[in-house]
Recover the amino acids of this structure.
């Protein structure tokens, strides 16, 4: 597959793919805040909010609506579940913030790229039309980022 060619995502999976974009944007916001030397606790407060309001519901939707299409014993699903558990552990860690934030940036971006480039492509190939319609019908979450402290927009002193 050509790395520069956009992936044609099935309509039923497009909303979840857009949430992946939001996760990559989180990574950028963390990196931007760190580069601007924003207080790490301020960044972590946003990361915690994003985790509760966006990432946990996203993981739940994937695990309930999408992953069963391939089944719990499929290697790609095992990897995705392990990634979710690792990310949950990182997001709930309150110490070593520099290391944790860097790990979140790296691990979340790798996980999203894995799901987009491998897992979702496999799911699109094997899912029935009925399964895809069910995903589209049940996944109605609309991500809204109404967090007030936009630390990533701070000017560098």
């Amino acid at each position: 597959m050509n790395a520069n060619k956009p992936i044609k995502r099935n309509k039923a999976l497009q909303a979840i793919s857009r949430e992946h974009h939001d996760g990559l944007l989180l990574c950028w916001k963390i990196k931007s805040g760190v580069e601007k030397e924003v207080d790490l606790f301020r960044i972590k407060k946003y990361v915690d909010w994003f985790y509760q309001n966006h990432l946990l519901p996203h993981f739940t939707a994937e695990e309930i609506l999408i992953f069963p299409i391939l089944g719990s014993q499929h290697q790609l699903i095992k990897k995705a579940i392990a990634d979710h558990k690792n990310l949950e552990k990182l997001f709930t860690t309150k110490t070593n913030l520099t290391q944790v934030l860097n790990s979140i940036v790296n691990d979340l971006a790798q996980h999203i790229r894995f799901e987009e480039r491998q897992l979702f492509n496999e799911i699109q190939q094997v899912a029935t039309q009925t399964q895809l319609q069910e995903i589209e019908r049940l996944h109605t979450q609309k991500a809204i980022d109404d967090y007030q402290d936009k630390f990533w927009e701070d000017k560098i002193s």
Residues 97-126 form the longest helix (30 residues). The mean pLDDT is 92. The chain has one domain: 11-144. The chain has five helices and no strands.
